[in-house]
Amino acid sequence: MKAAVCRAYGAPLTLEEVVLRPPGPGEVQVTVSAVAICHSDLGFLDGNWQAPLPAVYGHEACGRVAALGDGVLGFDVGDQVVVTLIRSCGQCRACLRGKPFLCATVYDRGNGVLSLPDGTIVQQGLSTAAFAEAVTVHASQIAKVPEDLPAELGALLACGVVTGTGAAINTAQVTPGSSCVVIGAGGVGLNAIQGARLAGASTIIAVDLAEEKLVAARAFGATEALRADMKGLRGAVMDLTEGQGADFVFVTVGVISAYQGAPALAAKGGMVVMVGMTPSGAQMAVEPVVVAATSQTLKGSFMGGTVVQRDIPYLVEMWRQGRLKLEELITERYRFEDINQALADARGAAVRRNVIIMDR
Questions:
Q1: Which of 56, 236, 312, 360 has its CA 20 to 30 Å from the CA of residue 100?
Q2: What's the CATH code of the domain at 175?
Q3: Degrees to nearest 5, angle at CA 29 with 27 and 32
Q4: How far is Cα 345 from Cα 216, in angstroms, rounded to an integer?
Q5: Contact 165, 192 (CB under 8 A)
Q6: How far apart are CA 142 and CA 84, in angstroms?
Q7: pLDDT band at 259; cut points 50, 70, 90
Q8: Residue at 319 is within a domain
Q9: pLDDT per residue over 202-225, tens digit each?
Q10: Are 8 and 137 part of one and the same domain?
């Protein structure tokens, strides 16, 4: 099959013939119909979080089950499924406590799922490697979705949508009537706004530098929109929250300055939810006495605390009911042959999600 192979950080991907092994016990093979581009893919391709090369990245996919390994139950060949990077063993402490997104079982991404025709191992980036015509993944990584869901929308549910909505619904457990600030109105931020709205927040304040993103934030459910570089940002947030600050502040961008300023926007007893992924080594300063005195919580959110087979069907139902925007998240569609252009365009400030449609 063809895959877009990363051979050097910062270099264009090369479309090459690679070998994808059949699914083993507990695994499935999925023919990819559509794959979206996440900023985490860009981070890996830039070398922000280095892993062995050559590698195939891409982790937001939707396709159809092509083959089942031994012991896989609940799926049939031909099923349309969303493919995620959340791989869980079902037996470790995290899995048994209902947190499969934190599965502790080590998985070797260089175990031979992918290889070049000469036998050279290709790393299965993010345990998925979906910038390809097909993937072989663990059955825990997929969720069945209905036929009326277009594959390009299903791909969005694999990461960006669950990361944002899940940060509000699962991680923060936003309460009805509460106030939220969402710093960053990109793909993940817009979904954090949607999650806060679904959870019943009464005040949702979007903060971003780009006017067009703030306009989009309102369309996705923000009740207020503030420029991140405005004078008196904290005062404006206080005015919108009865002088208290926000109950929940979501940082959805991987920018240290955003993290550094977030606690000042939160109420006493409020929570700062850390969603955006910074490059390795980036650090923020925290004054413990302030955190203690304000009784604030700094809480990480990985993949929105998603339970794949529970949350993805729920989000599909919200889309069906018109309560979750998906079509509006797509900025542009590309052919697989144009993946390097799609990746370059994905760096644009106004891009939400670029999606590659796999023509056959």
A1: 56
A2: 3.40.50.720
A3: 140
A4: 19
A5: yes
A6: 6
A7: very high
A8: no
A9: 999 999 999 999 999 999 999 999
A10: yes
